[in-house]
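so my prof wants the structure for this chain in the C-alpha coordinates format not the other one, which i didnt know existed until like an hour ago. anyway here's the sequence
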Amino acid sequence: MNVQPKFSWWEKEGLNRPADFAVVGAGITGLSAAYFLKLHNPKARVLVLEKGARPEGATVRSAGFACFGSASELLLDVESMGADEAFGLAGQRYRGLQMLREIHGDMALEYEACGGFEVFFGDEKGKAEEIRDQLEHVNRQLNERGEIDGVVFSELERHETEALGFKDLHMAIKNKFEGGLQPQKLWNSLLVKCLGLGVEYRSGVEVKQVESGRLLGLDFELPCRKILVANNAFAHAWLPEQVKAARAQVWVSEVLARPFAEGTFHHKEGYNYFRGHAGRLILGGGRHIALEEETTFSTENSEQIKQYLMGELLPKLFRNNPPKMVESWAGTMGIGISKKPRIGLWKPGVWTAIRMGGMGIALGTLAGKMGADLMVEN
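here's what i got, hopefully its the right format
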Protein backbone atom coordinates (compact mmCIF):
# COMPACT_ATOMS: atom_id res chain seq x y z
CA MET A 1 0.00 0.00 0.00
CA ASN A 2 1.39 3.40 -1.03
CA VAL A 3 1.18 5.96 1.73
CA GLN A 4 2.29 9.53 1.07
CA PRO A 5 4.94 10.45 3.67
CA LYS A 6 4.30 13.43 5.87
CA PHE A 7 5.86 16.64 4.66
CA SER A 8 8.74 18.10 6.56
CA TRP A 9 8.43 21.49 8.20
CA TRP A 10 10.46 22.92 5.31
CA GLU A 11 8.14 21.46 2.69
CA LYS A 12 5.03 22.63 4.50
CA GLU A 13 6.46 26.14 4.80
CA GLY A 14 6.51 26.37 1.01
CA LEU A 15 3.07 24.84 0.61
CA ASN A 16 1.41 26.99 3.25
CA ARG A 17 2.90 30.28 2.06
CA PRO A 18 0.41 32.28 -0.08
CA ALA A 19 0.72 32.03 -3.86
CA ASP A 20 -0.43 34.62 -6.37
CA PHE A 21 -1.19 31.90 -8.91
CA ALA A 22 -1.43 28.17 -8.28
CA VAL A 23 -1.73 25.57 -11.04
CA VAL A 24 -2.96 22.04 -10.34
CA GLY A 25 -1.34 19.62 -12.79
CA ALA A 26 2.11 19.67 -14.40
CA GLY A 27 1.27 18.35 -17.85
CA ILE A 28 1.55 20.35 -21.05
CA THR A 29 -1.40 22.59 -20.20
CA GLY A 30 -0.45 23.24 -16.59
CA LEU A 31 3.21 24.02 -17.22
CA SER A 32 2.31 26.13 -20.26
CA ALA A 33 -0.08 28.17 -18.12
CA ALA A 34 2.61 28.64 -15.47
CA TYR A 35 5.11 29.66 -18.16
CA PHE A 36 2.83 32.40 -19.49
CA LEU A 37 1.80 33.55 -16.00
CA LYS A 38 5.41 34.01 -14.89
CA LEU A 39 6.55 35.42 -18.24
CA HIS A 40 4.08 38.30 -17.93
CA ASN A 41 4.07 38.57 -14.12
CA PRO A 42 7.73 38.07 -13.16
CA LYS A 43 7.28 39.23 -9.56
CA ALA A 44 4.28 36.99 -8.85
CA ARG A 45 4.62 33.72 -6.95
CA VAL A 46 3.53 31.03 -9.43
CA LEU A 47 3.31 27.53 -7.99
CA VAL A 48 2.62 24.26 -9.87
CA LEU A 49 1.46 21.19 -7.94
CA GLU A 50 1.71 17.65 -9.34
CA LYS A 51 0.49 14.61 -7.41
CA GLY A 52 2.99 12.20 -8.98
CA ALA A 53 6.73 12.24 -9.43
CA ARG A 54 5.89 13.31 -13.00
CA PRO A 55 2.60 13.85 -14.89
CA GLU A 56 0.45 10.71 -14.81
CA GLY A 57 -1.85 11.60 -17.70
CA ALA A 58 -1.12 11.59 -21.41
CA THR A 59 1.62 14.26 -21.52
CA VAL A 60 4.57 11.84 -21.38
CA ARG A 61 2.55 8.68 -22.07
CA SER A 62 1.21 9.48 -25.54
CA ALA A 63 2.41 8.09 -28.87
CA GLY A 64 3.98 11.46 -29.72
CA PHE A 65 1.54 12.62 -32.39
CA ALA A 66 1.45 16.35 -33.08
CA CYS A 67 -1.94 16.27 -34.77
CA PHE A 68 -5.26 18.05 -35.02
CA GLY A 69 -7.48 15.33 -36.45
CA SER A 70 -7.94 13.30 -39.62
CA ALA A 71 -10.51 14.26 -42.25
CA SER A 72 -12.95 11.55 -41.16
CA GLU A 73 -12.55 12.53 -37.50
CA LEU A 74 -13.27 16.17 -38.30
CA LEU A 75 -16.41 15.20 -40.22
CA LEU A 76 -17.51 13.09 -37.25
CA ASP A 77 -16.95 16.12 -35.01
CA VAL A 78 -19.12 18.24 -37.31
CA GLU A 79 -21.99 15.81 -36.75
CA SER A 80 -21.70 16.06 -32.97
CA MET A 81 -20.54 19.67 -32.51
CA GLY A 82 -21.62 21.59 -35.59
CA ALA A 83 -19.36 23.05 -38.27
CA ASP A 84 -18.36 26.26 -36.46
CA GLU A 85 -17.14 24.50 -33.32
CA ALA A 86 -15.56 21.52 -35.06
CA PHE A 87 -13.51 23.45 -37.61
CA GLY A 88 -12.82 26.25 -35.14
CA LEU A 89 -11.41 23.70 -32.71
CA ALA A 90 -9.22 22.26 -35.47
CA GLY A 91 -7.89 25.76 -36.01
CA GLN A 92 -7.05 26.03 -32.30
CA ARG A 93 -5.12 22.76 -32.50
CA TYR A 94 -3.20 24.09 -35.49
CA ARG A 95 -2.34 27.35 -33.71
CA GLY A 96 -1.44 25.47 -30.55
CA LEU A 97 1.11 23.40 -32.47
CA GLN A 98 2.64 26.50 -34.05
CA MET A 99 2.91 28.11 -30.63
CA LEU A 100 4.47 24.97 -29.17
CA ARG A 101 7.14 24.86 -31.88
CA GLU A 102 7.88 28.58 -31.63
CA ILE A 103 8.44 28.42 -27.86
CA HIS A 104 10.60 25.30 -27.75
CA GLY A 105 12.10 24.91 -31.22
CA ASP A 106 11.90 21.73 -33.24
CA MET A 107 15.28 20.44 -32.09
CA ALA A 108 14.32 20.45 -28.41
CA LEU A 109 11.11 18.57 -29.22
CA GLU A 110 12.71 16.16 -31.71
CA TYR A 111 9.91 17.41 -33.92
CA GLU A 112 9.54 15.71 -37.30
CA ALA A 113 7.55 17.65 -39.91
CA CYS A 114 6.74 14.36 -41.62
CA GLY A 115 3.09 14.91 -42.45
CA GLY A 116 0.16 12.80 -41.30
CA PHE A 117 -1.81 10.18 -43.24
CA GLU A 118 -5.27 8.72 -42.83
CA VAL A 119 -5.40 5.22 -44.29
CA PHE A 120 -8.25 3.09 -45.65
CA PHE A 121 -7.75 -0.60 -46.39
CA GLY A 122 -9.48 -2.80 -48.97
CA ASP A 123 -12.45 -3.56 -46.74
CA GLU A 124 -13.04 0.19 -46.19
CA LYS A 125 -13.54 1.33 -49.80
CA GLY A 126 -17.03 2.69 -49.18
CA LYS A 127 -15.85 4.88 -46.30
CA ALA A 128 -12.81 5.98 -48.30
CA GLU A 129 -14.91 7.18 -51.22
CA GLU A 130 -17.27 8.98 -48.88
CA ILE A 131 -14.39 10.92 -47.31
CA ARG A 132 -12.74 11.59 -50.68
CA ASP A 133 -15.95 13.24 -51.93
CA GLN A 134 -15.85 15.67 -49.00
CA LEU A 135 -12.17 16.64 -49.01
CA GLU A 136 -12.70 19.87 -50.95
CA HIS A 137 -15.44 20.89 -48.51
CA VAL A 138 -13.28 20.04 -45.47
CA ASN A 139 -10.35 22.06 -46.80
CA ARG A 140 -12.57 25.04 -47.53
CA GLN A 141 -14.09 24.92 -44.04
CA LEU A 142 -10.65 24.71 -42.42
CA ASN A 143 -9.63 27.80 -44.38
CA GLU A 144 -12.77 29.75 -43.54
CA ARG A 145 -13.75 28.59 -40.04
CA GLY A 146 -10.44 27.22 -38.79
CA GLU A 147 -8.41 30.08 -40.25
CA ILE A 148 -5.78 27.70 -41.64
CA ASP A 149 -4.17 28.78 -44.91
CA GLY A 150 -3.65 26.42 -47.81
CA VAL A 151 -4.80 22.92 -48.68
CA VAL A 152 -4.71 20.77 -45.53
CA PHE A 153 -5.89 17.36 -46.80
CA SER A 154 -5.02 15.79 -50.15
CA GLU A 155 -5.32 12.26 -51.54
CA LEU A 156 -2.09 10.45 -52.35
CA GLU A 157 -1.42 9.31 -55.88
CA ARG A 158 -1.66 5.55 -56.42
CA HIS A 159 2.13 5.07 -56.60
CA GLU A 160 2.55 7.05 -53.37
CA THR A 161 -0.03 4.90 -51.63
CA GLU A 162 1.71 1.72 -52.77
CA ALA A 163 5.09 3.07 -51.65
CA LEU A 164 3.87 3.13 -48.03
CA GLY A 165 4.29 -0.63 -48.03
CA PHE A 166 1.03 -1.61 -46.31
CA LYS A 167 -0.95 -4.70 -47.25
CA ASP A 168 -4.18 -4.17 -49.22
CA LEU A 169 -4.13 -0.37 -48.77
CA HIS A 170 -6.92 1.23 -50.82
CA MET A 171 -6.43 4.96 -50.19
CA ALA A 172 -4.43 7.41 -48.09
CA ILE A 173 -5.12 11.08 -47.34
CA LYS A 174 -2.23 13.34 -46.37
CA ASN A 175 -2.33 16.18 -43.85
CA LYS A 176 0.74 18.27 -44.63
CA PHE A 177 0.66 20.16 -41.31
CA GLU A 178 1.01 17.16 -39.04
CA GLY A 179 4.15 15.77 -37.40
CA GLY A 180 5.60 13.73 -34.57
CA LEU A 181 7.69 14.56 -31.53
CA GLN A 182 9.28 13.09 -28.40
CA PRO A 183 6.83 13.71 -25.49
CA GLN A 184 9.38 13.38 -22.70
CA LYS A 185 11.62 16.00 -24.31
CA LEU A 186 8.64 18.31 -24.71
CA TRP A 187 7.91 18.03 -20.98
CA ASN A 188 11.58 18.47 -20.08
CA SER A 189 11.77 21.65 -22.15
CA LEU A 190 8.61 23.01 -20.57
CA LEU A 191 9.83 22.34 -17.04
CA VAL A 192 13.24 23.89 -17.70
CA LYS A 193 11.65 27.02 -19.16
CA CYS A 194 9.29 27.34 -16.19
CA LEU A 195 12.04 26.88 -13.62
CA GLY A 196 14.23 29.33 -15.49
CA LEU A 197 11.55 32.00 -15.11
CA GLY A 198 11.18 31.29 -11.39
CA VAL A 199 8.06 29.11 -11.40
CA GLU A 200 7.99 26.90 -8.29
CA TYR A 201 7.31 23.22 -8.99
CA ARG A 202 6.23 20.71 -6.34
CA SER A 203 5.84 17.05 -7.28
CA GLY A 204 4.39 14.39 -5.01
CA VAL A 205 1.75 16.85 -3.79
CA GLU A 206 -1.84 15.68 -4.20
CA VAL A 207 -4.59 18.29 -4.02
CA LYS A 208 -7.65 16.81 -2.35
CA GLN A 209 -9.92 19.84 -2.38
CA VAL A 210 -10.15 23.02 -4.45
CA GLU A 211 -11.82 26.01 -2.85
CA SER A 212 -12.00 29.66 -3.72
CA GLY A 213 -8.81 31.07 -2.25
CA ARG A 214 -7.10 27.85 -1.16
CA LEU A 215 -5.98 24.33 -2.06
CA LEU A 216 -6.19 21.56 0.52
CA GLY A 217 -4.18 18.34 0.77
CA LEU A 218 -3.47 15.69 3.37
CA ASP A 219 -0.78 17.75 5.07
CA PHE A 220 -1.10 21.29 3.78
CA GLU A 221 -3.40 24.24 3.22
CA LEU A 222 -2.19 26.57 0.48
CA PRO A 223 -3.68 30.08 0.27
CA CYS A 224 -3.98 31.10 -3.40
CA ARG A 225 -5.14 34.35 -4.88
CA LYS A 226 -6.04 32.63 -8.16
CA ILE A 227 -6.14 28.94 -9.11
CA LEU A 228 -6.10 27.04 -12.41
CA VAL A 229 -7.17 23.39 -12.49
CA ALA A 230 -5.19 21.89 -15.40
CA ASN A 231 -4.97 18.19 -14.54
CA ASN A 232 -7.23 17.16 -17.46
CA ALA A 233 -8.91 13.78 -16.81
CA PHE A 234 -7.98 13.85 -13.12
CA ALA A 235 -10.28 16.85 -12.63
CA HIS A 236 -13.03 14.20 -12.76
CA ALA A 237 -12.72 14.03 -8.97
CA TRP A 238 -14.18 17.54 -8.73
CA LEU A 239 -16.03 17.93 -12.05
CA PRO A 240 -17.37 14.46 -12.91
CA GLU A 241 -20.02 15.84 -15.24
CA GLN A 242 -17.42 17.79 -17.25
CA VAL A 243 -14.57 15.35 -17.82
CA LYS A 244 -13.84 11.64 -17.55
CA ALA A 245 -10.88 9.38 -18.17
CA ALA A 246 -10.17 7.57 -21.41
CA ARG A 247 -7.31 5.09 -21.56
CA ALA A 248 -4.98 5.26 -24.56
CA GLN A 249 -2.92 2.10 -25.01
CA VAL A 250 0.38 1.98 -26.89
CA TRP A 251 2.80 -0.77 -28.00
CA VAL A 252 6.34 -0.59 -29.38
CA SER A 253 7.92 -3.18 -31.68
CA GLU A 254 11.33 -4.76 -31.83
CA VAL A 255 13.81 -3.07 -34.17
CA LEU A 256 12.45 -3.40 -37.70
CA ALA A 257 14.33 -5.07 -40.53
CA ARG A 258 13.73 -1.99 -42.70
CA PRO A 259 12.52 1.56 -41.93
CA PHE A 260 8.78 2.04 -41.48
CA ALA A 261 6.98 4.48 -43.80
CA GLU A 262 7.69 8.10 -42.91
CA GLY A 263 4.79 9.97 -41.31
CA THR A 264 2.20 9.70 -38.59
CA PHE A 265 -0.76 7.49 -39.46
CA HIS A 266 -4.45 7.45 -38.46
CA HIS A 267 -7.15 4.85 -39.01
CA LYS A 268 -10.83 4.47 -38.02
CA GLU A 269 -11.59 8.17 -37.40
CA GLY A 270 -8.35 8.52 -35.46
CA TYR A 271 -9.10 5.76 -32.96
CA ASN A 272 -6.12 3.79 -34.29
CA TYR A 273 -2.72 5.38 -34.81
CA PHE A 274 0.82 4.30 -35.62
CA ARG A 275 4.21 5.71 -36.63
CA GLY A 276 7.80 4.71 -37.08
CA HIS A 277 10.31 6.00 -34.53
CA ALA A 278 13.95 5.10 -33.78
CA GLY A 279 13.77 2.11 -36.13
CA ARG A 280 10.67 0.67 -34.43
CA LEU A 281 6.90 0.79 -34.86
CA ILE A 282 4.73 2.63 -32.32
CA LEU A 283 1.15 1.32 -32.47
CA GLY A 284 -1.83 2.43 -30.40
CA GLY A 285 -5.56 2.84 -30.20
CA GLY A 286 -8.43 0.38 -30.31
CA ARG A 287 -10.52 2.27 -27.78
CA HIS A 288 -13.54 2.31 -30.11
CA ILE A 289 -14.14 -1.42 -29.66
CA ALA A 290 -14.61 -1.05 -25.89
CA LEU A 291 -15.54 2.58 -25.17
CA GLU A 292 -17.14 1.95 -21.80
CA GLU A 293 -14.39 -0.38 -20.56
CA GLU A 294 -11.72 2.12 -21.58
CA THR A 295 -13.19 4.85 -19.40
CA THR A 296 -10.63 4.09 -16.73
CA PHE A 297 -7.60 5.59 -14.99
CA SER A 298 -5.76 2.28 -15.17
CA THR A 299 -2.40 2.37 -16.97
CA GLU A 300 -2.37 -1.38 -17.51
CA ASN A 301 -2.97 -2.79 -20.99
CA SER A 302 -6.09 -4.80 -21.76
CA GLU A 303 -6.04 -8.16 -23.52
CA GLN A 304 -9.09 -7.21 -25.61
CA ILE A 305 -7.40 -4.15 -27.13
CA LYS A 306 -4.14 -6.04 -27.58
CA GLN A 307 -5.84 -8.85 -29.48
CA TYR A 308 -7.64 -6.36 -31.74
CA LEU A 309 -4.53 -4.32 -32.59
CA MET A 310 -2.19 -7.30 -32.98
CA GLY A 311 -4.69 -9.53 -34.73
CA GLU A 312 -6.52 -7.10 -37.03
CA LEU A 313 -4.46 -3.95 -37.59
CA LEU A 314 -0.80 -4.94 -37.24
CA PRO A 315 -0.86 -7.57 -40.06
CA LYS A 316 -2.15 -4.90 -42.48
CA LEU A 317 0.90 -2.70 -41.94
CA PHE A 318 3.41 -5.17 -43.38
CA ARG A 319 3.41 -7.12 -46.62
CA ASN A 320 5.45 -9.83 -44.93
CA ASN A 321 5.41 -11.05 -41.33
CA PRO A 322 4.73 -8.25 -38.81
CA PRO A 323 7.29 -7.53 -36.08
CA LYS A 324 7.08 -8.65 -32.49
CA MET A 325 5.81 -6.06 -30.03
CA VAL A 326 8.14 -5.85 -27.05
CA GLU A 327 6.91 -3.03 -24.82
CA SER A 328 3.61 -1.40 -23.89
CA TRP A 329 2.04 1.25 -21.69
CA ALA A 330 -1.11 3.34 -21.36
CA GLY A 331 -1.90 6.99 -20.74
CA THR A 332 -5.00 8.79 -19.52
CA MET A 333 -6.79 11.28 -21.76
CA GLY A 334 -9.56 13.65 -20.67
CA ILE A 335 -12.79 13.45 -22.66
CA GLY A 336 -16.39 14.63 -22.18
CA ILE A 337 -19.73 15.06 -23.83
CA SER A 338 -18.04 17.59 -26.12
CA LYS A 339 -14.56 17.62 -27.65
CA LYS A 340 -14.36 21.31 -26.90
CA PRO A 341 -11.98 21.92 -23.97
CA ARG A 342 -13.45 23.35 -20.80
CA ILE A 343 -11.51 26.60 -20.39
CA GLY A 344 -13.20 29.09 -18.12
CA LEU A 345 -14.38 30.03 -14.65
CA TRP A 346 -15.44 27.21 -12.34
CA LYS A 347 -15.98 29.11 -9.08
CA PRO A 348 -14.81 32.51 -7.76
CA GLY A 349 -11.06 32.72 -8.21
CA VAL A 350 -10.82 29.25 -9.78
CA TRP A 351 -10.55 28.51 -13.51
CA THR A 352 -10.20 25.27 -15.47
CA ALA A 353 -8.24 24.27 -18.58
CA ILE A 354 -9.20 20.62 -18.97
CA ARG A 355 -10.81 18.08 -21.35
CA MET A 356 -8.28 18.09 -24.19
CA GLY A 357 -10.10 15.23 -25.97
CA GLY A 358 -6.94 13.30 -26.81
CA MET A 359 -5.39 16.33 -28.54
CA GLY A 360 -3.32 17.64 -25.63
CA ILE A 361 -0.06 17.98 -27.56
CA ALA A 362 -1.81 20.18 -30.11
CA LEU A 363 -4.07 22.06 -27.69
CA GLY A 364 -2.06 22.16 -24.46
CA THR A 365 0.11 25.21 -25.13
CA LEU A 366 -2.77 27.35 -26.37
CA ALA A 367 -5.12 26.08 -23.65
CA GLY A 368 -2.53 26.94 -21.02
CA LYS A 369 -2.16 30.45 -22.41
CA MET A 370 -5.93 30.92 -22.54
CA GLY A 371 -6.23 29.79 -18.91
CA ALA A 372 -3.41 32.09 -17.85
CA ASP A 373 -4.94 35.04 -19.69
CA LEU A 374 -8.28 34.51 -17.93
CA MET A 375 -6.56 34.46 -14.54
CA VAL A 376 -4.70 37.69 -15.22
CA GLU A 377 -7.61 39.56 -16.79
CA ASN A 378 -10.23 38.73 -14.15
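also thought this was worth mentioning. The mean pLDDT is 95.
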